[in-house]
Amino acid sequence: MLSGGDMLLRALHDEGVELMFGYPGGAALHIYDAIFNQDKVEHILVRHEQAATHAADGYARSTGRPGVVLVTSGPGATNAITGIATAFMDSIPMVVISGQVARDAIGSDAFQETDMIGVSRPVVKHSFMVRQAEDIPMIIKQAFHIATTGRPGPVVIDIPKDVADPSETFPYEYPETVKIRSYSPPVKGHSGQIKKAVEILMQAKKPVIYAGGGVVQGDGAEALTKLAKKLGYPVTNTLMGLGAYPATDKQFVGMLGMHGTYEANMSMHESDVILAIGARFDDRVTNSDVTKFCPDATILHIDIDPASISKTITAHVPIVGPVASVLNEMLEQVEASKQKIDKEALDAWWKKIDHWRERDSLAVTPAGGELIKPQQVVQALYAATNGDAYITSDVGQHQMFAAQYYHFDLPRRWINSGGLGTMGFGLPAAMGVQLAFPDAVVACVTGEGSIQMNIQELATCNQCALPIKIVNLNNEALGMVKQWQDMQYGGRYSHSTYADSLPDFVALAEAYGHSGVRIEKLSELGAKMKEAFAMKDKLVFIDVAVDPNEHVYPMAIKGGSMSEMYLSKTERT
Amino acid sequence: MRRIVSVLMENQPGALSRVVGLFSQRNYNINSLTVAPTEDPTLSRLTLTTIGDDRKIEQIIKHLNKVVDVAKLVDLTEGSHIERELMLIKVKVTGAQRAEVKRIADIFRGDVVDVTPTMYTIQLTGTSEKLDGFLQALHGTSVLEMVRTGVTGIAKGEKVLSM
Fold first, then answer.
1. pLDDT tens figures, A192-235
2. For domain B2-79, is the CATH number 3.40.50.720?
3. Which residues contact A536 (CB under 8 A, 6 or more apart)?
4. How many helices (H) and strands (E) does chain B have?
5. What three-state secondary structure class fits B147?
6. Of A211, A216, A175, A204, whose CA–CA distance to A285 is shortest?
7. What's the Rg (C-alpha) of chain A?
8. Rounded CA gap, A300 and A277, in Å?
9. How many domains does one find in chain A?
10. Can you tell me the ipTM of this complex?
11. Rounded distance, CA A68 to CA B42, Å?
12. CA distance B42 to chain A (A)
C-alpha cells in the first residue's frame, strides 16, 4: 500500500526514470516528501522552473530518453511553460509533473492556483489531470508512452495536492503494457509509397537530401548515412538536424536555410529531386515566399507526423512513418533495384556543387589586429575540444556561428532551441547533458544577452559540481537584433545595446564558486581556450570580447527564393 | 467550401477544449459545433462545420487526428450524408399575421411549440439551408429570439463512424 506521492515516485522508477529536475512549493510538498523517502530517482534542484524544463530537455535531446520535470502549482507551473513550449516546437519527449491545489479548492482562485491544463494546452502533446491517486500508475504509463512515441513531445500531469496525501494509501501495481484506443502512432511507412520514392530518387539528375531534426530524434542518423553513401548524393541538414549526417564528410554541403551555406541553398534551389526527411519546410528554410521555393524539384517527404507533410510545401510523394525504418526500407530497395543511378548526371551535379563550394561562403575575414571575430571563437572551441564535445547554445548570432563553424559528426551533440528560439536555453540544457554524461565535455555557446536569462543556474552547477564550459561571445549587444536593425532599420539600435551596464562575468562566475577567464586578444584565443578546457573538473566561464559589428552570413534575402542570399555586408547573389 | 467534420472522441474532461483550442490556435474557423455522448457513453460525437479550401481542410483533419483524445473522424461532405439542424424561433405575431406565419411554418414542416396571444415559438428541423430559407420566408415578421443547435450529421448507407 502506497500513498499517491509514493506511487508517483515508484511509477517513475518503474518507468526507468533516473533523473528529474524541479523546484518545490506548497502544492508539491507531499511529492517532495516522497522524494526524500526514496533513493531510486535522483532529483536536481534548479533555481528557476524554466531551467528545470530546459535541463530535462537537454537531457532528453542528448540521451533520447524522456526528460522529467516536477514543479509546484501556480507560478511554478507557469514558469515551466516556456520550457514546455520549447520542447513542443522541437518535438522533444518530456513529462512535466505539476502540483495543483487540492481537489476541493480547484476553481476557487486558491493561493497559487492556476489552470495548468488550460495554460499549457497549446504547447503540449497531451495532458492529464489526476483525479484520484489510484489512477497514478496508469497515467504515468500513458504519459511516457505518448511523450516518447510518434512525433515526440511534452506531456503535462497535473496532480492536486490531496491526491498525493501521505495519510491515504492504495494498492500499487505498475501496468506492463499500455494501449490508448484513440492514439496509434505510425510504426511503418507505406511500402508502395517508399517504392515510388525510391524510383524517383534513383532517376534524379540533380538530387539533394534534406534532413532535419526528425532524423536525430528518430534515431535515423545511421540509416541516413548508409543511404546517402550508397546513393552518393549531397546531403544538407537543417539547424535541428546537424549531426544527423557527419559534417566532415565530403557529401555534406552544410546547413541550409536562412543562414545556410551558399552551396546548400543553391543545391536545394536547383535540384530536381528533394528527399526531405524529418524536416518540416520551416520558414527559416524555405525563405518567406514559398511560391519561389525550389521550382524544379519533385518533393519526396518522409515524416512521422502527417500534419507536417504538405503543410507549406506540397509533397509529390508523402511517406508517413518513423524515419529510421523508412530509410532502412529505402536502402534495401535501392540495393535490390536493377535501376542504375545516372552517374554522368550526378558527376555533373557534383561539379556544379563544387563550383558553388569554391565560393567559400563561411570564409572568415580577420577583423585586423587583436580584435576577435565571433566565428574564430567557435573555431577555437572546435579545436580545443577536437570536435568531440556536446554543444548547447542559446539563441542569436552565437547560435548561428556555432551551427556554422562547429562541425557535428554525430547526432545528439548539438543541442539548441531551433523552433521556439528560446534565449536562456543553453546553460540549463548543458546541465541536463552534463548530468546525463558526467565524463563528457559539455560546452554552452552563448552571448551576454542570452546567458543573463538563466544565469542563476550557475548556483545549480555549483551544487551539482557540473564542469560545464560556458563560451560567451560577448559583443556587448543583442547581436542578432542589432544585425536586423543594421539591415532593415537604418542602424537605429532600439533597445539592443547595454555596454555600460554589463556585469563582470569573470567576477560573477567566481561569486557563484566557479572559475572565469576573459579573452580579449586574438593571439591569446587558442591557448586560453585550451587552458579553460584543461580545467576538467571546473565550470569555467570563458568571456570572449568579440567584434561588435559582425553579422551572420550568408543570410537569406526576405521574399526571395533559396538562391537569393546576402554573402557579406557588400555582396549578394 | 463549407465542410461538416464529424469527430468521435473520448468523453473525457478537457477533450472538447483541446479540439476547440486547436481551431483558435491555428486560426481555423468554426461556424457551428455540437457535441454529445454516443451510444457508448465513454465516447462523444462532435460535429463541426468549417469553411476552407482543400489545403486548409486537409490540415484541419490532420491536426484533429493528432489530438490524443480523438479516436476517429470523417469529413461528411466528402460523401453522401444527412445533415440536420434544429431551430427554435420566437416571433411576434398578431392579427392576420398569425394565420400567415402558421401557414409558412406548415410549408416548412415547422411546429408551433408555444403560443401566447402575441407570439409563436416555432420549432424547425432540417438542413442549414432550409432553416435559412424559413428565416427568409419570415421576412417582415418581427423575430424576438432565435436559437439554432448547429449542424449534426451522419453518413448515408452502411458506413458508420465507430470504434
1. 999 999 999 999 999 999 999 999 999 999 999 999 999 999 99
2. no
3. A467
4. 4, 9
5. strand
6. A211
7. 24
8. 8
9. 3
10. 0.92
11. 30
12. 12
